[in-house]
Amino acid sequence: MIMDGNGRWAKERGLLRVQGHNAGMEALRGVVEHTHQLGIRYLTVYAFSTENWKRPEEEVSGIFKLLVRYMASELERLHQNNVRINILGDWSAIPEDSRRAVEAALKKTKDNTGLVFNIAINYGGRAEILRAAKILARLSEKGLADLSSFTETDFSRLLYTEDMPDPDLIIRTGGDLRLSNFLTWQSAYSELVVTDCYWPDFTDEEYDQAIDQYLHRDRRFGGIKS
Ligand code: FPP
Fold first, then answer.
1. Is 204 a catalytic residue?
2. In the structure, which protein residues have their CB atom closer than 6 angstroms to any atom of ligand 1?
3. How many CB atoms neighbour CB 215 within 10 A?
4. What are 193's strand-pairing partners?
5. N or C: which end of the chain has fewer CB within 10 A?
């Protein structure tokens, strides 16, 4: 999920951008619940990109405060629903209270076996690929990886998503037709659905419509129709 349009949602209502993110957090609660109801196994949301640091300090700190609030209000329920929280990105660089909230969430839900809920924080697809390349270089230097036989599947395991499957569907709200450095490696064959609705307005019905579009796609993965 590329959760875009919080700022425009707020602007249309004469509110502050951070109030748009707050409404976005409310929408996220519903989306996680609906994902669970639909029986989807993996959900990844783009909460904060490596480029989002360029925003005004007030907005950046506002988003991280929301992360703390989200964990405080949702963690127990997510845990009861067997959800495993996972972070994609370099979260060592985030404010300390958010880091503590993330640590607690990872620890509490680590043995859960239901929905895997990935939250991309300080995440960028290119940064992720570069990080994996550096890990591979180090392994190779130590004689722990054979480059001549190293496969795409082996490389995938060095990404934050490790052994998770690639996303079948990427949904972007807010109408922009781009991926914005989201799951750059993993999205090679993902289906894309872009909706004009702003993220705070992304209801269960919008979600169902996106899934319906996905179900009508003809996925060939570079092959031809059988
Ligand atoms: C993009 O909208 C949204 C973000 C950069 C932040 C998303 C954050 C949340 C939904 C808050 C809650 C997250 C968690 C995990 C608790 P935008 O600001 O780019 O919108 P615009 O394109 O209309 O300006």
1. no
2. 3-8, 21, 24-25, 28, 47, 52, 63, 66-67, 70, 119, 174
3. 9
4. 171
5. C
Tell me how far the alpha carbon of residue 41 lies from the centroid of ligand 1, in angstroms: 23
List the catalytic residue out of 52, 81, 112, 181. Answer: 52
- Token code pair at residue 173: 């709200």
Q: Which of 125, 124, 217, 207 is nearest to 172 (CA)?
A: 207
pLDDT in tens, the chain (226 residues): 999 999 999 999 999 999 999 999 999 999 999 999 999 999 999 999 999 999 999 999 999 999 999 999 999 999 999 999 999 999 999 999 999 999 999 999 999 999 999 999 999 999 999 999 999 999 999 999 999 999 999 999 999 999 999 999 999 999 999 999 999 999 999 999 999 999 999 999 999 999 999 999 988 888 887 6
| Ligand 1 centroid distance, CA of 206 (Å) | 18
- Distance between CA atoms of 113 and 78, rounded to whole angstroms? 12
